[in-house]
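Collaboration report, partner site 2.

Our partner group contributed sequences for two proteins of shared interest, and the home lab folded both. The records are reproduced in the order in which they were received, starting with the first partner submission.
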Amino acid sequence: MLVLPPVPIVTLPLFPELDRLLLELLRSLTPADWQRPTLARQWTVKDVAAHLLDGNLRTLSMLRDGHFGEAPDDPSYAGLVAYLNRLNADWVRAARRLSPAVLVELLAQSGAEYTAYLNTLDPWGAAAFAVGWAGESESRNWFHIARDYTEKWHHQQQIRTAVGQPAPLMEPALFGPFIETMMRGLPHAYRDVAAPVGTRVRVVVNGNAGGPWELARTAGGWHLQPPGAATPAATLTLAPADAWQLFTKGLSAAGARERAQVAGDENLVLAALRMVAVMG
């Protein structure tokens, strides 16, 4: 069975629009909106905005300026996740001292510098950090940038969901690259799923910004393949809103299963329902 090489996902031109929409949204919020709870566990709208600022500043400091500050004690994937969770919590706690106006001002300045830095990277060069949730030990910069796009997209969407304005990011031009990047994690999510060679599993996200993705079991493991005409062994169909929340830990596997449509062998879709395409 032919295994196709990964096709780059072009996300870099979308960062300015994502930032424009974020700043426009944040400037429109009322004091009560800033304190609304979000899907990001215990974080409020203001906390998520602060986390987005941290992402900008951390990238500029670590990758542009070579200043890492502190390194993880444990280089394993679990150790890196624990390290990132600690950094995230420390920053958000400290940023509660900042006013919404200060946060917006800093986001506007750092967002432009962040995107300018990403534009200096060779898309095919080795990324400073691998995309661990896709099972990679080394990634190309284009995938690192696409991963960063999904971070900015889903955190902004957490804010938008909290304040009842989710529609702009669900447009095909913005949602399409987000969900395509998420789906690159499927082969790693299926790495321990046993099935005969030739078995196919299809994951469908409804809507004109979604599409079908198909996994095929080969002698070397699971790989994404172009959807075929034959009926797969199992098909999982998700609504777009459920898909982004599921893969970013905003919706549980059980909750997603209640809303999803499943055809064929239900056991074969469990790995997709448990996939997490974010760090932490």
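Second partner submission, folded after the first:
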Amino acid sequence: MKRGKKLFLLLLALAVLLGTTAAVKALSPKEEASQEVYTTIFTVDSETVTDLHWKYSEDVSVTKQDDTWAYSEDPAFPLDSSYIDTMLSALSEITSAKTIENVEDWDQYTLEAPVCEINFTADGTDYTIKVGEETSLGDQRYLSIGDGNAYLVDASFLSAFQYGLYDILKMEEVPEMDNVLSLEHISSDSSYTIENKEGSGLAYSDEYIWFLNDQPLDTELTETLLRYVTDTTWQECVNYRAEDLNKYGLENPTVTLVAHYTQEEAEQTFSLEIGDACEDGYYARISGSNMVYTIPKAAAEALIFTTYADLKPEDVLLMDWDKVSSVDIVLDEETYTIRISSTTSTDEDGNEVQEVTYTLDGEEIDGDSILNALDDLDSTGYASGSPGENPEEIRFVIHQDHQTFPKVELVFYRYNSTSCMVTLNGEPTVLVNREDVVSLVETVNDQVL
């Protein structure tokens, strides 16, 4: 190969290599920007700032009075000063990656009509800072400090000022209510009170905690309802000093919830009022407060519309079998009595071990299989009416160590081709799948026959 041709090929390879390197750099603007050096272009002692005004989504001005920040137009405004602290921190030192000197066309850098304008007074001197749009490469935005230059600063600078008046409002806190004693539900139509009566003996099982008019309630459903009050979450404040409560349906609330609870061994109350529905949920306030909020629709409607029927126990049977001494099972007009006894021993590790024995006519049987099958039954809905002349599938009479309910009677009646009605101590409670009852009967037959 001729020498000239070799030289041409070497130069061509070098050109390709340089082009590739340039392309890689062009495709990695963030990596290149990250290597830029930021220098300080502005500092201020935040302790000397006495007035601060910024215009982002709206104009907001705050003033420092006796070392406390307040909304300039209404000192009674509940200001969350942590937002002001964040703004002052951002202003205390501003750094720039690039300076564009002696700008003539501010619109070119989106600073003629800036995204945000900040005015403040520090140690008697007034300052104006304008913040523009992000650059085409992102991560940086234009900024002016009033010295005739435009600067490229970190894009996150603006985040400290992206607030309107109600964004910096301090909402009222809902107290911690770990130990709720009762909840009053008060409306124009009716009122009821849910009470914690754990260990009262009002139900056949001590596992029931919550009661309404001495009727046991489903624990999980009731505590879910209670959490809508104890864990009240404000979506937003719509008026921090409402004078016309009718505007929000709070002059005569749709419902008032009064929670009674203990805190540091002292009884306290928290009262929540719910008014009209709005686009984002429902209006609400703490009773006696002038601050009106919105709360989520699901929480509000649960608190407004829940009734006793919604909180009735869904359990087929909620039984503490440790207190049961015997179970009479009536099947095909025959009665089988299963006696239950337990012994406690200590294993080789020193732990107490309880062993439960089930006997039928003096013979030991697998009673756990029957009780487990009974516990595993799920309801398919609440029962209404009475079993009438419907045939009885199986009956359980449970004898237990309980002062008020020494005997509990559970009966399954054929309701239709797919369901059975359950009665507890003679009162209809729930429906269950008939095939599950048939399976329960088969389990009993396996042990008693």
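Feedback sent to the partner group on the second submission included the following. The chain has eight helices and 28 strands. Confidence is low (pLDDT under 50) at residues 1-34.
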